[in-house]
Amino acid sequence: MRTTVNLDDDVAAAVKDIQKSSGMGLSAALNELARRGLSVPRQRQPFVQATSSGHALVDVRNIGEVLDVLDEPRS
Fold first, then answer.
1. Is 29 exposed, middle or buried (0-12, 13-18, 19+ CB in 10 A)?
2. Can you say how many angstroms the Cα of residue 65 is from the centroid of all Cα atoms in its chain?
3. Tens digit of each residue's pLDDT, the chain (75 residues)
4. Cα(33)–Cα(56) distance, rounded to whole angstroms?
5. Which of the 8 DSSP states describes residue 35?
6. Residue closest to 17 by CA, chosen among 6, 5, 32
7. Of 49, 72, 52, 45, nearest to 60 (Cα)?
8. Model-level pTM?
9. Which residues contact 65 (CB under 8 A, 6 or more apart)?
10. How far apart (Å, rounded) are the C-alpha atoms in residues 12 and 15?
């Protein structure tokens, strides 16, 4: 595929480093850099549930407490 791209200075420098160290041409070095980026596993951030009051109304790890709250009549 042939296309025109604008590289940021840091990316262009990384491509040039690959070219110098491996003797690759521009396209091959750019593809190598892209493949390196694709092979790095993404780190996922753990999910954290925020509440509007700052704390949970019940401890959801205690199913008995949750059921008691659900069984309470509403006013």
1. buried
2. 36
3. 888 999 999 999 999 999 999 999 999 999 999 999 999 888 888 888 776 666 667 777 888 888 888 888 876
4. 46
5. H
6. 32
7. 49
8. 0.53
9. 58, 59
10. 5
Domain chopping of the chain, boundaries: 9-39
Q: Which position has the token pair 């999910």?
A: 47
Cα angle at 73 between 72 and 74, to 5 degrees? 115
Distance CA 6, CA 13 (A): 13
Among the listed residues 15, 59, 52, the one whose alpha carbon sits nearest the alpha carbon of residue 37: 15
Short-list 10, 17, 47, CA closest to 32: 17
